[in-house]
Amino acid sequence: MHSHELIQQLDVIAPEQWGAHLPAHVVEQLPAQGVTVFGVSADASDTAAFSERYGFGLEDCANTIVVRYKKDGGEHYAALVSLGSRRLDINGAVKAALGAQRLSFAKREAAVEHSGMEFGGITAFGLPADWRILVDAAVMERQQVVMGAGVRAAKLLLAPGLLRQWPRCEVAALTLPPQ
Predict the structure, then answer these.
(1) Beta carbons of 142 and 10 less than 8 angstroms apart
(2) What average pLDDT does the segment 117-140 reach?
(3) Is this prediction's pTM over 0.90?
(4) Of 30, 46, 73, 177, which has the fewest beta carbons less than 10 angstroms from its beta carbon?
């Protein structure tokens, strides 16, 4: 199935309606051009279920994972964007990219509280200004990716090049090679 056929099957949300569906701080940071926002049913929000229901491969689903790390005596948060088909190399590549002394996945409550987003729908857009946003290099090789939209009831469809143009985004190799 070609991407334009897929888009016709999606429940696309018009840009003037984004504010009614997505958190305001996510909408503020979304690029004006090149992003398609579409609604998803709650039971198909998780990556595997979403992939099956909507026909996007796991290699086109970019998940945003929140980590907490210690560096220079302080505690920080970062968001990692990686494909559903790849495993993050947390203790190797990710730790090195962040220059972290210690690193762990953020607790669910903390991720939700600090991001102001729904768990399972956290996206790279709209995160606190002091968070680093690291995008795995493999994401950049895709023609388009599906990302969270801040809520479980919607997703973003965009070309990874949009992330590369975004000043907050750092591209780095963060995942293990596919098995």
Answers:
(1) no
(2) 96
(3) yes
(4) 73
